[in-house]
Amino acid sequence: MKYLFLFVFYVSALPVALKAQDMASLFISMPDEYILQLEEAWRKDLVELYRAGKPATLDNTMKGHSTLVQLTPDYLFLQSSERSAIEMKLLPLINLTNIICIVTTVSAPVADSRVAFCTTDWKRLDASDIWTPVTADRFIRDDADRQSEAFLDALSRMDMDLIRYRLHAENATMTAEYMTPEYLSQEDRDKVIPFLKTETLVYQWKTGRYETPR
Questions:
Q1: Torsion angles phi and psi, residue 122, rounded to 5
Q2: 189-201 burial by CB neighbour count: b if 16+ within 10 A, else e?
Q3: Are 47 and 32 in contact (CB under 8 A)?
């Protein structure tokens, strides 16, 4: 009888637990430290405006505007300010639970992103267990002559790594785009571009980890 009661309790509680992992609910309940521009009540207002089909834009505490651009059961895109954006995606684990991937991008003016992972009760996870950040080397063409004077000159101009990461509403992939050329002058950019791949790097979500092709 005891085990039957526990089984019934688990089955009845499961839909509630899954519903609590809806992106809208998670966005509203997220700690203020993750998004200083918007307090909880304002996040709730944004969700209600979005669901009502109205412009989901509010003034924020940074004397700017925040817009909820897209919201699905497992994805959110928030233009948190004129120069910053937040994407969140629920990623499934094998035990019917999820974790949250958060990509924060700041354009100043060239876009650069930071990636973090949390549990659905907003505890930080060790990102090194879940993904490996891409480096500039992954964007260099395979056939580039790395010993040539032209390549070494181009490499010296790429003195910082600016990477824009993007999540996607329709699937669990994450893409990485090398943005450093946008930071360079046109003259320097023309010297760098011939050595770079044109395609973005795609991370696939596999068994609880983001992985990229070698």
A1: 65, 35
A2: bebbeebbeeeeb
A3: no
